[in-house]
């Protein structure tokens, strides 16, 4: 896709999204059944791709739906493109694009009919046929939406999300169910949108997706951000350093080091048995996936490290759950 909008100059614009102390709880019969968002702070700069990572039920979709204006919050401040989504009107809505997790409406309309129809909702829409080409659906332009494959349907969702030429695009788990080739070309599309000046907030379960696309990523767990930064920096500067693990006197030891060869040599000199081996010796290279799994509490922060790994520094603790500014609890469904 050719560049469409002049990318904003860094530092000259207010952030696209600013969230402070966001809270949201789901209630039933007056009782809180789930504190879905629990004091979340977030800033997304204009022109960046920002990824929100986290396990099922972490609060990603709830947060994004609040930012999109589809769901009410209980507490906190939210500004999206300079307005509060809970109060913003049609003009604001025409400046954002939304690709929801799942959409199956208008099944009888063709791709071309749908994209042209959606274009009429916006004051300065893109050329619908250019958009269809950009998402790789030219050959399916006359196919009814219900006859598309899952990946093609997702591309149509993206076409509908971008035809209004949004300043800010929300992509909720956009590549779930894609084959590897479809994912790659979708990534190219997202990067092209960013080149054209669109700010993009995406939620994803895929760390490789965040690593490939995102300028910055936040890991959400239990409704709070537990790590924030460039994808490669998540977990702090030490997280990706190699770990040497060994067993001595029946106790497992582990040490992060920038010089694993030197450490292994010194262990060999001190601890090697008659067979020349250091008991339990392993040199582990944590992957981004390991770091992420550690942050969401799914596995130890270093691969294959069990309870006997006392020497490793902890990863950042979850942020202080100090924000509970909820006023009135509501039970609701997203009002789309
Ligand atoms: N309408 C609702 N009523 C009650 N609880 C809800 C409702 N919607 C979501 N929840 C709960 O709130 C929590 C956060 O859900 P949310 O959908 O925001 O998580 P998520 O991070 O997007 O998860 P996933 O990755 O599975 O999409 C979950 O425990 C979920 O069960």
Describe the structure.
This is ABC transporter ATP-binding protein. It comes from Oerskovia douganii. It is found in: Cell membrane. Residues 17-247 form the ABC transporter domain. One of its GO terms (molecular function) is ATP binding. It contains nine helices and twelve strands. It has a six-stranded mixed β-sheet, with helices on both faces. The protein has helices at 60-67, 90-93, 111-119, 128-134, 150-162, 180-195, 207-213, 260-271, 288-295, and strands spanning 17-28, 31-44, 49-53, 75-80, 96-99, 168-172, 199-204, 216-221, 224-229, 243-248, 251-256, 282-284. It has 336 residues and is of the alpha/beta class. The radius of gyration is 23 Å and the shape is elongated. It has two domains: 1-95 and 168-180 and 194-235 and 316-336, Rossmann fold (3-Layer(aba) Sandwich), CATH 3.40.50.300; 239-314, no CATH class. Residues 7-11 and 300-336 have low confidence and may be disordered. Adenosine-5'-triphosphate (ATP) is lined by residues 26, 33-34, 36, 54, 56-62, 333.
- Indicate the radius of gyration in whole angstroms: 23 Å
Mean model confidence by pLDDT: 82
In whole angstroms, the N-to-C terminal distance is 29 Å
Count of individual helical segments: 9
**Regions with pLDDT < 50 over 5+ consecutive residues?**
7-11, 300-336
Strand and helix order: EEEHEHEHHHEHEHEEEEHEH
Q: Reading side by side through the largest sheet, how are the strands ordered?
A: 5-6-7-3-8-9
CATH fold assignment of the largest domain: Rossmann fold
Strand content: 15-25%
Largest sheet data:
6 strands, mixed
CATH superfamily of the largest domain: P-loop containing nucleotide triphosphate hydrolases
> What share of residues is helical?
25-40%
Q: Any idea how many domains? A: 2
Structural class of the secondary structure composition? alpha/beta
What hetero molecules are bound to the protein chains? adenosine-5'-triphosphate
Please state the overall shape, judged from the principal axes of the Cα atoms.
elongated
CATH architecture level-2 label of the largest domain: 3-Layer(aba) Sandwich
CATH level-1 class of the largest domain:
Alpha Beta
The number of E-state strands comes to: 12
């Amino acid at each position: 896709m050719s560049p469409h909008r002049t990318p904003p100059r860094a530092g000259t614009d207010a952030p696209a999204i600013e969230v402070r102390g966001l809270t949201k709880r789901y209630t039933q019969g007056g009782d809180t059944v789930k504190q879905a968002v629990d004091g979340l702070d977030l800033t997304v700069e204009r022109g960046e791709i920002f990824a929100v990572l986290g396990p099922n039920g972490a609060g990603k979709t709830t947060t994004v739906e609040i930012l999109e204006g589809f769901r009410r919050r209980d507490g906190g401040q939210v500004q999206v493109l300079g307005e509060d989504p809970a109060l913003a009107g049609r003009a604001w809505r025409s400046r954002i694009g939304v690709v929801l997790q799942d959409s199956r409406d208008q099944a009888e309309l063709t791709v071309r009919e749908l994209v042209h129809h959606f274009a009429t909702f916006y004051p300065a829409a893109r050329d619908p046929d250019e958009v269809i080409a950009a998402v790789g659906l030219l050959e399916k332009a006359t196919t009814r939406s219900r006859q598309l494959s899952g990946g093609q349907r997702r591309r149509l969702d993206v076409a509908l999300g971008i035809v209004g030429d949004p300043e800010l695009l929300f992509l909720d788990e956009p590549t779930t169910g894609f084959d590897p080739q479809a994912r790659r070309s979708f990534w190219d599309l997202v990067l092209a949108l960013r080149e054209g000046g669109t700010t993009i907030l995406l939620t994803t379960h895929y760390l490789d997706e965040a690593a490939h696309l995102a300028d910055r990523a936040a890991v959400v767990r239990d409704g709070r951000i537990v790590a924030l930064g460039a994808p490669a920096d998540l977990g702090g500067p030490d997280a990706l350093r190699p770990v040497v693990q060994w067993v001595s006197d029946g106790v497992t030891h582990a040490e992060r080091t920038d010089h694993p060869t030197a450490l292994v040599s010194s262990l060999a000199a001190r601890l090697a048995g008659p067979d020349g081996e250091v008991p339990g010796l392993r040199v582990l290279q944590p992957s981004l996936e390991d770091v992420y799994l550690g942050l969401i509490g799914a596995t130890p922060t270093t691969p294959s490290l069990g309870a006997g790994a006392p020497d490793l520094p902890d990863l950042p603790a979850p942020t202080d759950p100090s924000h509970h500014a909820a006023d009135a609890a509501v039970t609701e469904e997203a009002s789309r």
